[in-house]
């Protein structure tokens, strides 16, 4: 039934589930917990009168309109949580240093567990023995050693999962967990193939298989849902603060609502970070299976050698980024004869 609904709604499914539904949930909290106290506050008094007698219609209309607005603002909303927008320089630099230390610590913990396991199974090469001794005496790993020594395969997999939410290159680290979790798959295509997927995203999604594009949209919807829910909770907290000016404010209800929302905001943030795992897998699949149709649509043939393919995608990525230069003629080496792609409508 869910697949039928998704097929019927098409692109509206992501909008409804990702932005309208969480907006409706936050409006429901306002209507049930705060509206009785907000009726005497001037900014909300008019809205309360308008909703009288047309409650359901007003609720659905407000949910839809606010959901559309939040969907239109999704880029700046994401950038704030990723640490790129409205972050002071010192906070940005501190966040990057903090996550750099976390990433290195996770990597060292996994390396230490791997070397100790190999040492228990047999002899280690001299280089690995030196690394093992260095890690065993590392101060920043001392607090984790006892726990890691008793760790199971599942716990090691969870540590590996946390490490996988960081970009492979420390130069691409962001100051927040969500920023790093998203940045890891933004640079996947460039790290593997020198294909700038961010720059060529429209071309890539226009030529990739339909199933791959649908997987990306579906996976992102889960992240959108938690991001919208988080921002909605912040807005509800501000509304709760507005009830303090009301003489008839129900202090216990407002305080309880605010406390619950403060607990759930970090929970939704962590859920958004975890939900990026499926998003990352979908983007990875899109790049792996979509780069060949992309090359064909551009009139190019993918070389058999990976090094040559990386060179080709590097040249392709430069074309829309910088003005034309005669060095771009190096792409002629990868262009297919006209008869090989005339059927695709390319030139």
Verbal overview:
There is one protein chain. It is flat, with a radius of gyration of 26 Å. Helix 10 (177-186) packs parallel to helix 14 and helix 12 packs across helix 14. With 347 residues, the chain is mostly helical. Helix content is 75%, strand content 0%. The protein folds into three domains: 2-84 and 192-295, no CATH class; 89-173, no CATH class; 298-344, no CATH class. It has helices spanning 2-9, 12-38, 42-51, 55-72, 74-82, 89-121, 126-136, 139-149, 153-164, 177-186, 188-193, 201-207, 210-242, 251-297, 306-318, 338-341. The relative contact order is 0.11.
SSE layout and pairing:
Layout: H1 2-9, H2 12-38, H3 42-51, H4 55-72, H5 74-82, H6 89-121, H7 126-136, H8 139-149, H9 153-164, H10 177-186, H11 188-193, H12 201-207, H13 210-242, H14 251-297, H15 306-318, H16 338-341
């Amino acid at each position: 039934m869910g697949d039928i609904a998704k097929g019927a709604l098409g692109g509206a499914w992501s909008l409804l589930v990702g932005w309208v539904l969480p907006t409706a949930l936050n409006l429901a909290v306002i209507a049930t917990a705060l509206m009785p106290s907000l009726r005497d506050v001037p900014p909300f008094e008019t809205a309360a009168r308008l909703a009288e007698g047309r409650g359901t219609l007003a609720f659905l209309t407000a949910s839809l309109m606010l959901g559309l607005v939040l969907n239109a603002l999704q880029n700046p909303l994401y950038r704030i949580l990723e640490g790129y927008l409205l972050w002071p320089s010192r906070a940005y630099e501190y966040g990057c240093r903090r996550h750099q230390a976390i990433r290195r610590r996770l990597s060292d913990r996994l390396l230490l567990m791997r070397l100790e396991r190999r040492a228990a199974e047999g002899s280690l090469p001299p280089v690995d023995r030196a690394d093992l001794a260095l890690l065993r005496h590392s101060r920043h790993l001392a607090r984790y050693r006892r726990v890691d020594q008793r760790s199971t395969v599942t716990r090691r997999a969870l540590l590996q999962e946390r490490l996988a939410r960081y970009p492979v290159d420390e130069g691409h680290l962001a100051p927040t967990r969500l920023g790093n979790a998203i940045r890891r798959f933004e640079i996947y295509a460039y790290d593997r193939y020198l294909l700038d997927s961010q720059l060529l995203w429209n071309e890539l999604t226009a030529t990739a298989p339909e199933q791959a594009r649908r997987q990306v949209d579906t996976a992102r919807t889960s992240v959108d849902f938690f991001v919208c829910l988080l921002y909605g909770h912040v807005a509800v907290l501000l509304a709760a603060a507005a009830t303090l000016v009301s003489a008839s404010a129900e202090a216990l209800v407002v305080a309880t609502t605010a406390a619950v929302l403060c607990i759930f905001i970090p929970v939704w943030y962590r859920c958004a970070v975890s939900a990026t795992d499926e998003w990352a897998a979908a983007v990875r699949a899109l790049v792996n299976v979509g780069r060949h149709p992309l090359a064909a649509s551009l009139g190019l043939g993918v070389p058999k050698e990976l090094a040559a393919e990386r060179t080709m995608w590097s040249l392709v990525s430069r074309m829309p980024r910088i003005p034309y230069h005669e060095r771009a003629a190096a792409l002629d080496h990868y262009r297919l004869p006209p008869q090989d792609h005339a059927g695709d409508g390319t030139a």
